[in-house]
Amino acid sequence: MSSLWKFKSGVSRRAVLKGAAGAVGLAAGSGGITGFPYVHSAEPKVLRYLGTAVNEGDEISKKCLEDTGIKIEYITATTDDVTKRVITQPNSFDVLDTEYFSLRKLVPSGNIFALDAKKIKEFDNITPVFTKGQLPNGKKIGNQGTAPWKVLYLEGPNSKTFSATPTEFVTLIPTVYNADTLGIRPDLIKRPIASWAELLNREFKGKAAILNIPSIGIMDAAMVVEATGQHQYADKGNMTKAEIDLTMKVMTEAKKAGQFRAFWKDFNESVNLMASGETVIQSMWSPAVTKVRSMGIACTFQPLKEGYRSWASGFCVSKAVSGPKLDWAYEFVNWYLSGWAGAYLNRQGYYSAVLSTAKANMTPDEWGYWMEGKAAVGDIKAPDGTVLEKAGALRDGGSYEDRMGSVACWNAVMDENDYMVRKWNEFIAA
Amino acid sequence: MTQDRKSFVAWLQAAPMMLIFALFFLLPLVFVTIVSTWDYNEYEMIPAFSLRGYSDTFEGCIAGLPDLCTILKTYLKTLKLCVLTWSLTLLIGFTVAYFLAFHVRSKTWQIVLTLLCTIPFWTSNVIRMIAWIPLLGRNGLVNRGLEGVGLINAPLEWLLFSEFSVVLALVHLFTFFMVVPIFNSMIRIDKRLIEAAYDAGATGWQTLVNIIIPLAKPGIVIGSIFVITIVMGDFVTIGVMGGQQIASAGKIIEARLNALQFPAAAANAVILLGITILIISSLTRIVDIRKEL
Questions:
Q1: Nearest-angstrom CA–CA distance, B256 and B249
Q2: Is the pLDDT of residue B128 over 80?
Q3: With a CB-CB cutoff of 8 Å, which residues 181-240 of chain B face chain A?
Q4: Cα B258 from Cα B249, distance rounded (Å)
Q5: DSSP state of A183
Q6: I want to staple A408 with a disulfide (CB 3.0 to 4.6 A). Which of A142, A196, B76, B224 is the partner?
Q7: CB-based contact, A265 to chain B, within 8 Å
Q8: In CATH, what number is assigned to the domain containing residue B181?
Q9: Segment (H or E) for B159
């Protein structure tokens, strides 16, 4: 809200400037036609950054200001509200931090600017996970759901259609991604967990949880359905109506039997549920597992034989951005990919999009622990300096290749999304 | 002439309120109603007439008989929570207001104690609800205490993320909305009426039923309107305290909004508004608030 207000007052200040120095402004040809005359010396470089709280660290904005002189104003909202805001108020932000699966809603609205791949310095070094759907070593990874490479390119600068083949018009520059799986409390479960089927195992009645985001919750359920051999989906991220019915039936039976303790939507909620022992097995995010562990409570981000559900986010730019602001947006994205931020994200248990620059900003021990699945030589520290793991520890799930190579599907928006939401409401009412 | 001028002045005085009311309440409501009859796709509303938002909502209500359809189940659940919350807040609110109005003699203490009732509002809604987890959770204070005393062997699961916890949180939050209007009605009851009843030999119970309750009716109705309208539309408290597994009318709207299906959300909002208006108008039929005030 405060940033919105700042924006408004900024406009009126510009309007005053324009009025006072109107003739001068026109003579200088400073874009009076667009209504945004720009006076370089008087204007600080400010970008309004819309996203969820997860990636909006103060550390990152501070470092960015230090390195580039660009001041980042965070506008924080939940995943769903970010999407709503892009569709209804495209003028209220400059840079957007969102996930690839949202693009199927955002791009057709025409509010997303097609970025020029040539202006992204490290574009060719972005991991082939995004550009080709394969690991750096050439191994193909799962393409079910809204996989990034399906929605990465546009057909033209003003196109609303995704291009299946690479073009120079890019929708979203990837920054951070991960392979998600179930978090478990090994101290309370006391036996090995190896399959998604365990999520609905009666043994954990009243102690399981999933995400309260219908499109993601249903995919976790689909992993269970496949793991128990009830059905093989052609695409878990794009189910037919019959498949939605089947998956919801499985979920409804589990809900009626009291399998779920709660559904969570927020990072902290998931941490609370796990740390308090309300749940012992649930869908989770990697940094949430780390947080539980840093509280001295045993928690494992458990690799499962059916693979991971992956997600990826990055930066879009609003169609309303033009002129010098657009240059700053490119500058910001280029800075983000230049290594410092990537290393910061890697140390949180996420992955950075340009691996080479991140590697240059991490110690060999850090790189070995987080990326190569090697045992830590010294203590592993979080970005804020707290010790996360003692020397000798191994990362859950192993190396980058092991984890990203086992991705089974990507967060998605289905063609039958409308039907799915209705079924979700029915599931909640059951 | 003077009559005309008087009514003109009256209109003028009411104008600012009317303007605000029209601009920020009636107009948006008209928009919502219009949008509820539009079509939509994955990312935008399409201004073409379609009753899809409504027909989808009532999907399976006839075909699925004798099983209840989603919307009926949801409203039954919402009404159940509403009735439970309403009766509990009324009982507690009435008792608290009675104590404040008739047992606390000094004005100062009445004010101090009323302010004490606002304590639940000193913290944010979210904090207040999160605070229940360490209290009611599986390893929470209550379960630990009961186990310690030896009353139970295994923790009580129904204390949290259940209808019980939802109603508990709602009552905790909204009892104050009952206390204030009822207290306000009670404080204006002429004390001589109660003395007269006492002199005429009425018991305490008879005085309560025949004098205090009838005279406190406007307060009871106003408090009820507050509580019922809030609970009918609530999705945050029901969501958090119910572990997001309890259906409510508000939650349906939220799910639709989050999926960017604005017309469907608007249709559900219109339905909820209609049902709430029905409840409120039958309440005001029982007591004519305007006359009583």
A1: 11
A2: no
A3: none
A4: 15
A5: E
A6: A142
A7: yes
A8: 1.10.3720.10
A9: none
Alpha helices, DSSP H, located in B42-130: 52-57, 70-98, 107-116, 125-130
Q: Which of B56, B74, B264 shows the shortest C-beta gap to A429?
A: B74
What is the phi/psi pair of residue A102, to 5°? -70, -20
pLDDT for A18: 41
Give me the architecture of the A180-307+406-429 domain, per CATH. 3-Layer(aba) Sandwich (3.40)
Question: Please, what is the end-to-end C-alpha distance for chain A in angstroms?
Answer: 38
Distance from CA of B33 to the nearest CA of A (A): 19
Q: Is A109 on the interface with B (CB under 8 A)?
A: yes
Number of domains in chain B: 1
Contact A210, A224 (CB under 8 A): no
DSSP for B173-225, please give it. Answer: HHHHHHHHHHHHHHHTS-HHHHHHHHHTT--HHHHIIIIIHHHHHHHHHHHHH
B255:A87 CB<8 A: no
The predicted model gives B229-235 an average pLDDT of 93
Q: Which residues contact A249 (CB under 8 A, 6 or more apart)?
A: none
What's the predicted TM-score (pTM) here? 0.83
Q: Which of B157, B246, B252 sits opposite A206 (nearest CB)?
A: B157
Q: Which of residues 394-423 of A touch B (CB under 8 A)?
A: 413, 417-418, 421-422
ipTM of the complex as predicted: 0.84
Options 3.40.190.10, 1.10.10.350, 3.40.50.300, 3.30.2310.20; CATH for A2-178+311-358 is 3.40.190.10
Domain membership flag for residue B186? yes
SS3 content of chain B, % helix, strand, coil (to 5): 75, 5, 25
**Contact call for B255 and A425, based on CB within 8 A:** yes
Please give the Cα distance from A152 to A154 (Å, whole number): 7
What pLDDT sits at residue A79? Answer: 82
User: How does pLDDT run across B140-187, given as a tens digit for each residue?
Assistant: 899 999 999 989 888 898 999 999 999 999 998 899 999 999 999 999
Domain that includes residue B282, residue range: 68-292
Domain with CATH 3.40.190.10 in chain A: 2-178+311-358, 180-307+406-429
* Contact present, A315 and A96 (Cβ < 8 Å): yes
Report chain A residues whose CB lies below 8 A from the CB of B134. 276
Nearest to B268 by CA among B249, B246, B248, B245: B249
pLDDT of residue B274: 95
